[in-house]
Design goal:
- The longest helix has 21 residues.
- The strands form four sheets. Strands 3, 4, 5, 6 and 7 form a five-stranded antiparallel β-sheet that branches. A five-stranded mixed β-sheet has the order 8-9-10-12-14. A two-stranded antiparallel sheet has the order 1-2.
- The protein contains 17 helices and 14 strands.
- Helix 11 packs antiparallel against helix 12, helix 11 packs parallel to helix 13 and helix 13 packs parallel to helix 15.
- It has one domain.
- The chain has 423 residues and is of the alpha+beta class.
- It is globular.
Length: 423
């Protein structure tokens, strides 16, 4: 890795075809290629259930991995998404082994003698692709991902469109309670304890019960049926539930509480932050975020409540059109919360050139970038060296790694650079 960085630095010095920004010629740094063992511990590269390819490209400032598994092949974008997938593959393997036991087979067989239980089968579905955020971060740096402005016509029209959909459903209103009763009656599996059992197994195995990994959902569903109807029980310990981060707290809530209760808490958290009720409804109903992600965001918003920027941030969140956009926003909020808890209070959050920027109590402007590997390209320096982002005290906080060249150029232009900040 040191040799690669040295070669990159030499190329930076002698590169003759750079582009001129703010009167200076800037070098152009191409995306590197890494070996998986440089990025992951050896014990995570290969198990009985999967194998990670050694060659790792950087695409759109994110690592792109190839994974072969007994359950199919994956192309995974983003180190965080890879680690999540690898753990889920291990869990699927564990559940497959459990399902082969005599006790499990007996419980599942007994459970499906009940005519009610057979109304919801265990479907086999194709494996979904796993992607991260490269297209989202490219549009974000280009100022084209989010176009929200406080008090803008677009924001106003958005609120009006939500209002036109009808009256708000209050968290504890008779209307909502009636809907919940009807939903519960319709989904008899809730009476049978299926959803509760699924959450408990997800807790034991430390996975997200609302994961979009369809193989994981199938495996959890099968063992939840066996547990709720056949009284099947695993013999492994439940991990400690002590957590300190807001993300960890969100996951604990998702494991412990049913979906309708989580939705009620999400609504309540946003109201505490003085978010317009129609925007609250829109966020609650957004398809871009999973229930787990909405819970995590609502807790992040509570941490940032005193900045007064939460109503703006929720509108910003609603601009996400894809899962990649949503994941990018979620990680960006994580950096803001981390900065506030570890460095200084955030007193405001605004948008400049399409990028979110926090103003801290100590007088700095903080720009979070949720990327795996930030290298010096026209897209990066045209954004970060633009006139709109000029400031005497500005910091860029990068979730992953900043290349030596990018660090050198950013510091040369007055930026303070912090990388590998994601906890």
């Amino acid at each position: 890795m040191r040799i690669r960085f040295l070669i990159s630095a030499i190329c930076c010095v002698f590169f003759a075809s750079g582009e001129r920004v703010l009167g200076q010629v800037e070098p152009v740094e191409g995306p590197p290629i890494f070996l998986a063992r440089e990025l992951l511990p050896e014990n995570l590269l290969r198990t009985d259930f999967y194998s990670v390819s050694q060659m790792v490209e950087v695409t759109g400032f994110a690592y792109e991995f190839s994974v072969e598994s007994v359950y199919g092949n994956y192309r995974v974008t983003g180190k965080g998404e890879l680690l999540k997938l690898l753990h889920e593959l291990e869990v699927i393997g564990q559940l497959a082994e459990i399902s082969q036991s005599e006790a499990f087979a007996s419980s599942l067989s007994t459970s499906f003698t009940d005519p009610v239980a057979t109304t919801v089968g265990v479907a086999r579905r194709p494996i979904a692709s796993v992607t991260g955020l490269p297209t989202g971060i490219a549009r974000y740096l280009g100022g084209k991902l989010y176009q929200v402005r406080r008090g803008s016509d677009k924001a106003v029209s958005k609120i009006r469109s939500f209002k036109a959909k009808g009256e708000e459903v209050e968290a504890d209103s008779p209307k909502e309670k009636g809907q919940l009763r009807a939903s519960t009656s319709k989904l008899s599996r809730k009476h049978l304890g299926h959803d509760s059992a699924k959450r408990k197994w997800a807790r034991r195995l430390e996975v997200d019960p609302y994961s979009d990994n369809l193989r994981l959902q199938e495996a959890l569903g099968r063992i939840a049926w066996a547990s709720s109807l056949g009284q099947f029980a695993g013999d492994f310990a439940v991990p400690s539930s002590e957590v300190f981060s807001y993300a960890g707290k969100a996951q604990e809530l998702v494991w412990d509480r049913p979906a309708h209760q989580l939705e009620r808490e999400i609504v309540g958290n946003l109201k505490k932050c003085k978010v317009d009720k129609y925007i609250v409804e829109a966020f609650r109903d957004s398809s871009a975020y999973s229930l787990t992600e909405k819970t995590q965001l609502s807790l992040a918003f509570l941490r940032l409540k005193e900045s007064g920027a939460v109503p703006f941030l929720v509108e910003f969140a609603l601009e996400a059109k894809t899962k990649e956009d949503a994941f990018l926003f979620l990680r960006t909020m994580g950096v803001f919360v981390q900065y506030q808890e570890e460095v200084s209070e955030i007193v405001d959050i605004q948008e400049k050139r399409g990028l979110l920027v926090a103003s801290s109590k100590n007088g700095y402007e903080i720009y979070p970038l949720a990327v795996d590997y930030l290298h010096w390209t026209p897209l990066v320096y045209e954004a970060l060296l633009s006139e709109e982002l000029k400031s005497d005290k500005r910091e860029v906080w990068v979730s992953g790694t900043v290349s030596p060249i990018a660090k050198l150029r950013l510091r040369h232009h007055g930026w303070e650079v912090f990388d590998e900040v994601e906890r």
